[in-house]
């Protein structure tokens, strides 16, 4: 670890490392608070239905032309999200290589965050039948969102020791769910009561998306001002300009990955269980409305409940990891996820209380499993390559995140019911958990040259 966090205390001089780290950690938490506005208000709730409505205005015979292809308006958001996801999977590893060759990681985080927020703010001007502006703006914003996450996660390794990592990561996720939930609740009121507020529903939606962009940009100032740039370390000697050096770093890391088999095993396990988590979240609203017969407002209110519970869940999982280690706690979380999709198979139609209980269960494990996965992976990667390895972490996540939705869609197509479709996702939790059981935590940490925490 660079800088103050690893300095040797001189006799008679106070060790300011913990104090300096604490200040940077508090600033770092606010990036999760900032970017969650985009992931909840825009990507999670409002963008897709609004773009579909705009595309319908431009449709001829219920079709629009996208790069020469005839596309139904209802399918447009899926194609856009897929395109931005695949572009991210290609670009993020190169960005990670660039980031590891510069000490200005927090500058790059802020730069991509502000570029993404600017692109997201253009959604306010998507009116009439101008779906093209909405598509381009979202693609750019979503790519910038992923890029900024690479630098944000790499900074986790620079502002915390191995012993602190689970706690810091969990608190960051908690901030994220709190920030995203607060703004989403405000926007929920604005959209739901737009008539009383003297605005049309379309304007209320556009104003909500603009508020998310401004929230993202504004709160990014806190980590930008509160985190310092840390010097680079442990890079392979490659020559040339920054682009050629970055490609050289990328190639060196690809070859070097075989020296960290434990990290690779965990990465594959993460791809499975995280795909299951993302698909449950993405499909929950469809399941609630189409299969259980709840109104959209009820499902959105449940979504807010999940956000609120996830704050406590992330903090609780962080405390449990400090006592028992991250791996056992993640495994417990995966067992709970298996129980969730099993209970969903039998959930009675139209009964609100069981649906809310299931929402609370999702909230408990949602933030915790993802927060601990981030901090656990950080222990298994070598110093000086934080951004590079986290770029693969995010790129592979995005590049394979369609498997779960594909399984969900195929099972629904074959069965005609969302119940077996949601239950089929248990496969991802079982496989991910089985692979995680094979991960030797202590060996992986030692392979990466990191200090072994008290609880592993």
UniProtKB/TrEMBL annotation:
Q: What is its main location?
A: membrane
Q: One Gene Ontology cellular component annotation? A: plasma membrane
Signal peptide span: none
The way this protein sits in the membrane is described as: Multi-pass membrane protein
Q: Which InterPro entries match?
A: Atg22-like (IPR024671), ATG22/LtaA_families (IPR050495), ClC (IPR001807), MFS_dom (IPR020846), MFS_trans_sf (IPR036259)
A GO molecular function annotation here is: chloride transmembrane transporter activity
This one is known as MFS transporter, UMF1 family
Q: Which parts of the chain span the membrane according to its record?
A: 33-55, 75-96, 108-127, 133-160, 172-191, 203-225, 262-286, 292-317, 329-347, 353-377, 389-412, 418-437
The answer to whether keyword Cell membrane applies is no
Provide the coiled-coil residue spans. none
Name the source organism: Nocardioides psychrotolerans
| Domain named Major facilitator superfamily (MFS) profile: residues | 262-456
Assigned keywords, A-Z: Membrane, Transmembrane, Transmembrane helix, Transport
Q: Where in the cell is it found?
A: Cell membrane
Organism domain of life = Bacteria
């Amino acid at each position: 670890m660079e800088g103050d966090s690893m300095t040797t205390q001189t006799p008679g001089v106070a060790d300011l490392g913990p104090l300096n780290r604490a200040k940077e950690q508090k600033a770092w938490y606010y990036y999760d608070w900032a970017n969650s506005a985009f992931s909840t208000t825009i990507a999670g709730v409002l963008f897709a239905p609004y773009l579909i409505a705009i595309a319908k205005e431009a449709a001829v015979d219920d079709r629009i032309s996208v790069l020469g292809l005839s596309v139904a308006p209802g399918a447009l958001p899926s194609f856009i999200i897929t395109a931005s996801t695949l572009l991210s999977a290609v670009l993020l590893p190169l960005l990670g290589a660039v980031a590891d060759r510069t000490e200005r990681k927090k500058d790059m985080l802020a730069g991509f965050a502000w570029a993404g927020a600017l692109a997201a703010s253009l959604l306010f001007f998507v009116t009439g039948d101008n779906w093209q502006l909405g598509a381009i703006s979202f693609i750019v914003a979503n790519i910038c969102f992923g890029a900024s996450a690479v630098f944000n996660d790499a900074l986790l390794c620079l502002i915390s020791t191995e012993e602190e990592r689970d706690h810091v990561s969990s608190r960051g996720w908690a901030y994220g769910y709190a920030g995203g939930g607060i703004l989403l609740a405000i926007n929920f009121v604005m959209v739901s009561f737009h008539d009383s507020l003297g605005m049309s529903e379309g304007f209320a939606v556009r104003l909500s998306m603009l508020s998310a962009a401004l929230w993202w940009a504004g709160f990014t100032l806190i980590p930008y001002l509160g985190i310092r740039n840390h010097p680079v370390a442990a890079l392979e000697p490659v020559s040339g300009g920054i682009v050629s050096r970055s490609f050289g770093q990328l190639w060196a890391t690809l070859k070097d990955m075989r020296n960290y088999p434990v990290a690779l095993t965990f990465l594959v396990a993460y791809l499975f269980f995280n795909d299951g988590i993302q698909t449950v979240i993405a499909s929950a609203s469809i399941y609630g409305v189409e299969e259980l017969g709840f109104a959209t407002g009820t499902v959105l209110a449940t979504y807010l409940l999940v956000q609120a519970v996830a704050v406590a869940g992330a903090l609780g999982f962080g405390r449990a990891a400090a006592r028992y280690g991250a791996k056992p706690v993640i495994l417990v979380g995966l067992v709970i996820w298996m129980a969730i999709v099993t209970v969903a198979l039998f959930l009675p139609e139209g009964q609100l209380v069981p649906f809310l209980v299931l929402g609370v269960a999702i909230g408990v494990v949602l933030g915790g499993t993802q927060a601990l996965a981030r901090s656990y992976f950080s222990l298994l990667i070598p110093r000086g390559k934080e951004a590079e390895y986290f770029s693969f972490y995010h790129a592979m996540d995005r590049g394979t995140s369609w498997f779960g939705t594909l399984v969900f869609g195929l099972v629904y197509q074959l069965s005609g019911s969302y119940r077996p479709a949601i239950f089929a996702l248990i496969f991802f939790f079982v496989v991910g958990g089985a692979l995680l059981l094979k991960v030797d935590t202590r060996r992986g940490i030692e392979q990466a040259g990191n200090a072994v925490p008290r609880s592993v």
